[in-house]
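Entry 14. Two folds queued back to back today. First construct below, sequence then structure tokens.
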Amino acid sequence: MQLTNIGVIKELFERHGFSFTKSLGQNFLINPTVCPKIAEMGGCESGVCALEIGTGVGVLTQELARRCDKVVAVEIDTGLKPILEETLAEFDNVEVVFADVMETDLKSLIAEKFGDSEVVVCANLPYYITSPVIMRVLEEKLPVKAMTVMVQKEAADRICAAPGTRDCGALSCGVSYYSEPKMLFKVNRGSFMPAPNVDSAVIRLDIKSDNGLNVTDEKLFFRIIRSAFSQRRKQIINPLSGELGIAKPELAGLFADSGIKQTARAEELTLKDYAALCASISNRNK
């Protein structure tokens, strides 16, 4: 069954009475070259297990199953169950868990299904849930080696932007704190049915075992970053003063202690700068 063939997909949907759910951002891949590349470049191979987020009709799931020892896919749309039972019937190393990934205990799921095996995460993420899913996987410090995902091209650019550059944002900083992001390849909008209004891209996030920043208060660290980027055109001393309740003259002194100029804007600071500022502010509170 060629799951990237429009005719096959339409016949499959009609036979099972399936219809697209716009609220779930469903766009199904019809480009046969994309999923094999995601699986291969995502580190799927013998000895590795894969956690997939969102299955669609199973086109990526099949490619993961052909390469990995075991695949567990979390899919929110129960309407896809009879379709997946058919499209994944030949694979005995695949299990589909019908649940909302944002409400699933992923750490327990990985431990239960994969044990001590090396794990990678792969996904074709709907645009509306890109940031929450990525940051959940990273923030929960799941025992995974890498996360390879297809997202909107503009989101991919933001995610992979290095802290301290013009294109970076709070999401870029969060991703770079936990991982090494890399742009893999672009996927044009004609690769999907129905075709979205934007192009996509596949990125890989290699999880860091140690980022070398020695941040002792991650909650404060990310609070500073989010506040700084909340008014990115302004000098960060302004939003930080209000957010942290620290008078500007005192905050200016903490900037100086951290080696940061008082006129700095959010995109000018590296993660090391934010870590230094976090340490200065944290020490002030002791």
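Second construct, same run, same settings:
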Amino acid sequence: MSATTHKISMNAVQFKSMAKIIYDRSGIHFPDSKKYIIESRLSHRIVELEMENFDQYISYLTMGPYQTEEFQEMFNRITINETSFFRNDAQLDVFENQVLPGLLEARASTKRLRIWSAACSTGEEPFTLAMLLHRTLGVRLSDWRIEILGTDISEKALTVAQGGKYNSYAVRTTSSMMKSRYFKEDGRDFILDDTIRSMVNFEKHNLKDTLAAKRHGKWDVIFCRNVLIYFDDDMKSSVLGMFDNQLVSDGTLFIGHSERIKSLTDQFTQLQIPQGFCYQKTDHISNLKGS
């Protein structure tokens, strides 16, 4: 049987079971209209495992001895890690030129800055933030303790991030000046500068795991862009509650330009900065207005 020519169909009951497994483990919501995604991307995997149908695969995911490993394999196949360096440059400009200066001034006494890039995929976002900090601080960088953490649920994506090697598609939105400054071309690949690589740590993390998030303490900035769109409202509210707990009182949350959270929480208030798509804690903004 050829994995490239055979497609295994999935009925409504099987889809409901698969969607529940995915939601329970990751918080990602697959509505009925997205049934074809699971069916098309996993039917090849079922053939690879020499199974005959989705019922066998569901048993393997829930009762098999390799269920944890297989969940990772499944997750890698059903998700698309669509990202690039300097994605949504206008928003990054807001971070570098409007949010970052205030944070650096507020942290001048401790000279410590902590940034969490949540659901960072293959690492382009946290590495981009590292470049912006390197460019902003210049020779002052050695005086600061900069902590940037990139987390993702996909071990496969994190392996790419830790390798620091990217193809031309990943740097498609990177200026020639930044490419020449922070990358070395190796054939068709772009090798990230060791200084930037050393500024970022990576760790596997599931956004459903609030206890693991607490272990890292408070963050000055949290980036979680183009992730909430994959969650239902309950999961979105849970993640936003976690971010509220893990963000310092004057910290800033950045989300994707197509994401809206006003109806989901009163813990955050959007800053009126064009192209910013950034939020601060409502209590902090109220205190500023009252002072």
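Quick look at the second one. Residues 1-5 have pLDDT under 50 and may be disordered. Strands lie at 112-117, 145-152, 165-167, 183-186, 189-192, 200-204, 219-224, 247-255, 268-270, 278-281.
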